[in-house]
Amino acid sequence: MKSTTSKDQKTANMLVNRKVVHIEWGDCDPAGIVYYPRYLEYFDNCTAALFEHAGLPKYEMIKTYGIAGIAMVDMRVRFLASSRFGEDVTIESSIPTWRNSSFEVHHQLLKGAVLAVECFETRVWTVYSAEDPGKLQSQPVPREIIDRFSTPAEPTA
After folding, report:
1. If residue 127 lies in a helix (H) or strand (E), which one and from where to where?
2. pLDDT tens readout for residues 18-77
3. What is the pLDDT of residues 86-122, one digit of tens each?
4. What does the DSSP assignment read for 24-42?
5. Contact 117, 92 (CB under 8 A)
6. What span, in angstroms and rounded, lies between the C-alpha atoms of 59 and 145?
7. Domain at 2-149, CATH from 3.40.50.10860, 3.10.129.10, 1.20.1250.20, 3.40.50.970
8. Are 71 and 136 in contact (CB under 8 A)?
């Protein structure tokens, strides 16, 4: 892991998860093209799959680390080519940047070798506030979590 600034850490050997998604009719508008909010569901599911691939299923992170979740605080999506009913697409997900309590997730939705949609998420490691259990607050991401994403592993489908 090499540090790019005092706050950001770039993952040298990023763990990448690949997930094949079959486009269903319910994902599409009447023209048979994926309705854009469905991509956001795909990407959220792929973030969870990436953590599972690192050996960190969400229920285990909640139990072991006492987190409330990994809250989405920012998202940017580029739509480059449409996806249609009946197609199979592959989503590659990774975490290229870690900060103290936040991290960037990068998703690439591929149709064959063509980049169709690209998504950048900023997520925050959150816990319930000790002072007010009804509120969330950020907490530093444990080092052992970050280490799981810098270890090369065989991608899964």
Report:
1. strand 114-128
2. 999 999 999 999 999 999 999 999 999 999 999 999 999 999 999 999 999 999 999 999
3. 999 999 999 999 999 999 999 999 999 999 999 999 9
4. PGGGB-TTSBBPHHHHHHH
5. no
6. 14
7. 3.10.129.10
8. yes
pTM of the model: 0.86
Q: How far apart are CA 105 and CA 66, in angstroms?
A: 21
Q: Which neighbouring-strand residues pair with 94?
A: 106
131 CB burial (10 A radius; 0-12, 13-18, 19+): exposed
- The predicted structure's pLDDT at residue 13: 77
Burial 78-97 (b: 16+ CB within 10 A, else e): eeeeebebeeebbbbbbbbb
Q: Which of 63, 78, 58, 60 is nearest to 121 (CA)?
A: 78
For position 1, what pLDDT does the model report? 29
2-11 confidence digits (pLDDT tens) = 333 334 556 5
Give residue 5's pLDDT.
33
Q: Are 32 and 85 in contact (CB under 8 A)?
A: yes
What distance in Å separates the CA atoms of residue 9 and residue 2, rounded to the nearest whole number? 6
